[in-house]
Amino acid sequence: MNYRVEHGPSFAWLKVALAEGDEIQAEAGAMVCRDPQVEMTTHLNAGRRAGVFRALLAFLIALVRKFLGGETMFVNRFRSSGPGEVILAPALSGQIIHKRLDGASKLFVQTGSYLASTGEVDTRVRFTGLRSLLGGEGLVLLECAGEGELWINSYGGVLPLEVNGTFTVDTGHIVAFDGSLDFKVKSVGGMKSLFLSGEGLVCEFSGRGVVYIQSRNLQALVGWLSRLLPA
Amino acid sequence: MQIEIQYNPAHSLATVHLDAGEAIRAEASAMVSMTRGIDVQTNAGHSAGGGILGGLRRAVVGGESFFQNLYTARSNGAHVTLAPRLCGSMVVHELDPGVDLLIQGSSYVAAPESVHIDTKFQGFKAFLSGESLFFLKASGRGPVLMNAFGAVEMRELDGESILDTGHLVAFTAGIEYTIGKASQGWIASYLSGEGLVLRLRGRGKLWIQRRNPSEFGRTVGSMLPAREG
Amino acid sequence: MKYDILDSPDFAMLQLVLDAGEVVVAESGAMVAKDSQIQISTSMRGGLLGAAKRKLLGGESLFQNTFTSQSAGQRLFLAAAAEGDLKARQLAAGESFFLQSGAYVAHSGAELVIDTKFGGLKSFFSGVGFFMLRIQGPGTVFYGSYGALHEVDVGPEGYTVDTAHIVAFTEHLDYSVRAFGGFKGLFFSGEGLVCDFSGSGKVWVQTRNAAGLAAFLHPFRAVKSKRS
Q: How far is C204 from chain B (nearest CA, A)?
């Protein structure tokens, strides 16, 4: 399998050249085009070693999210019966980052940022932190582990920052971060700020590792537009 | 007439430079700015009555209106600048005589009167996903200004390809197409998020946009406050 | 204070490096990330009365955030909500320029004045929730756009711009707003205004407009359930 992220930073897409027997998994809705010999099947993303309970839970969450809007937990798997190409793209404008997971380290990814993966990359949903009373923002993360390739997308440009000490990031601007970092979700400056600052929740990172921040935030876009909408 | 495009790939702006007497037809909402020496004629629709187009309005992604303004330069050195609604690029295709261009409805921006625009309604409504497809056919001679959601890639097709309909900008007439669902069943197609796909076969030019307006609309729209009806 | 604008023009983000005691005021919701020695405090713009009055005009939040650095080399990242560019304008004492209210991101300089009661420009945006601010130096103002920022030199022959695409313009230009013919869109019938500029100065035009995006997204919104 060969792959190439083309033409970042604003509208990056992932071109994958599959050989016979290769398989790549992608977030629902990510396919742009494919050669006719590439076959697509749809699956629930419950994690590769999901037991019955976990699979059922994932299915219920996925259905709820599908109908209420937001990302789904369904994925498409692409296999080719001969050499064939598939092109994948995220829903939002931005960049695509490729990470190779080696089986030893973990990467936490915002669920909306997951694009595709191969091999034995396992993704588990984790709900973390406060659910904001006002906006339902908490931090929903995919814990990615295992061995294989992983592609994540940003909304806007992406900036990888080395944390060595502490660093605070608005939750809507987090793409992903190393599993080696400690993190705590909180409001940016006390109770008054929670309701009034308009900043929503932030994630305070400590320790050593890389956090990938994106220069745009879907919640902020929604807030900006909501003031202009007709009834 | 000269069309200059700046700020590709994300925030494209097309400056249409017109000499005295030259004119360009563009969607009313596409105008950003213009020099003083431009006459504007409104509601100069390309073809068909408002009745047909009115009914099709909702069929097009984003409910694009189809009323055109005609911008005519009174003197040399005039220009009008145009932009689409969504972030992305614009591209100009100079029509080859005899080779029509099929453009996905919301990708068409502007063209001079020497280009004839026909509305060719595909009208395929996919169960559950609510997607449908609306094509325009451009024929004649002259430049056609199109927009793409995200960056645009032009491919020379010689063979077969399966393309998600939301990523289609345009293709030349030598390419045949059928529209089908992405997965085996309707439920699977709905869950797969892919909706409709186009099976394209033949030889010609194909323009693909790197982002899908319906995907973007669903992602953001579901987070916006609900609307009345 | 040092600043850099990253990812311009597609998704511009402002990176500021502040030293101890330096202060930046920003629109609420603009913060992307910060080092831990930057303190944030929230206040109402112009005091309680001023803020309440402003809410009525729409398109702006009541609050602003003040970021104060408590040590050297503290980084603060700010961004606007829309996909677009970001620019800085340094204004000398007494120098002003006009800025569309939704474009304001942040400013530095305790003496910078943001005047919202500039009634002369009320006719600019009908019902879209934006209005023009008059910004007077000394100080630096950071502003963003939806789309790219296209700078136009206006001369005596004049120039016409759709009002939804106006981000900023210099103080000595003459301007006059009028209705523009043509079907402007399905939902915003109050739109369709253009501004004729003349004289000598610069206009900053954004290549996208918020109402267009709102109109595009409208069909994708959930429909309110009818209750009898």
A: 11
B176 assigned to some structural domain: yes
As a whole number of angstroms, the longest Cα–Cα distance in chain B is 59
Residue C225 covered by a domain? no
pLDDT tens digits, one per residue of B108-144 = 999 999 998 887 665 555 444 455 667 888 999 999 9
Give me the CATH number covering residue B193. 3.60.160.10
Residues 63 through 82 of chain B touching chain C, CB cutoff 8 Å? 63, 65, 67, 69, 81
Could you tell me the residue range of the domain that residue C136 belongs to? 2-220
Residue B205 included in any domain: yes
C62 in any annotated domain: yes
ipTM value:
0.83
Neighbours of chain A (3+ CB pairs under 8 A): B, C
Q: What confidence tens digit (pLDDT) does each residue in B6-56 have?
A: 998 999 999 999 999 999 998 777 889 999 989 888 765 544 333 334 334
Compare CB distances from A225 to C27, C77, C217 and report the shortest one's residue: C217
Nearest CA in chain C to A192: C42
Subunit contact A226:B161, Cβ cutoff 8 A: no
C115-150: pLDDT as tens digits: 876 655 555 655 455 678 889 989 999 999 999 999
Alpha-carbon gap: C177 to the closest alpha carbon of chain B (Å): 13
Q: Which chains are adjacent to chain B, needing at least 3 Cβ pairs under 8 Å?
A: A, C
Q: Which long-range contacts (CB under 8 A, 24 or more apart) does B42-47 make?
A: B42/B67, B42/B69, B42/C181, B42/C182, B42/C183, B43/B67, B43/B68, B43/B69, B43/C182, B43/C183, B44/B68, B44/B69, B44/B70, B46/B117, B46/B119, B47/B116, B47/B117, B47/B118, B47/B119
Token pair recorded at residue B32: 């950003």
Which residue did the predictor score with more confidence, A173 or A129?
A173
Interface membership of A59 toward C (CB under 8 Å): no
Cis peptide before C9 (omega within 30 of 0): yes
| Residues of A whose CB is below 8 A from B188 | 41-42
Number of domains in chain B: 1
B40 vs A: CB within 8 A: no
Q: How far is CA B194 from CA A67, B127, C113, C119, C200, in A?
A: 16, 13, 51, 50, 52
- Band the pLDDT of A53: cuts 50, 70, 90: low
Residue B160 Cα, gap to closest chain C Cα (Å) = 32
Note down the domain range covering B100.
2-218
Q: Do C36 and A167 touch (CB under 8 A)?
A: yes
Residue of C nearest to A69 (CA): C222
Residue B168 counted as domain residue: yes
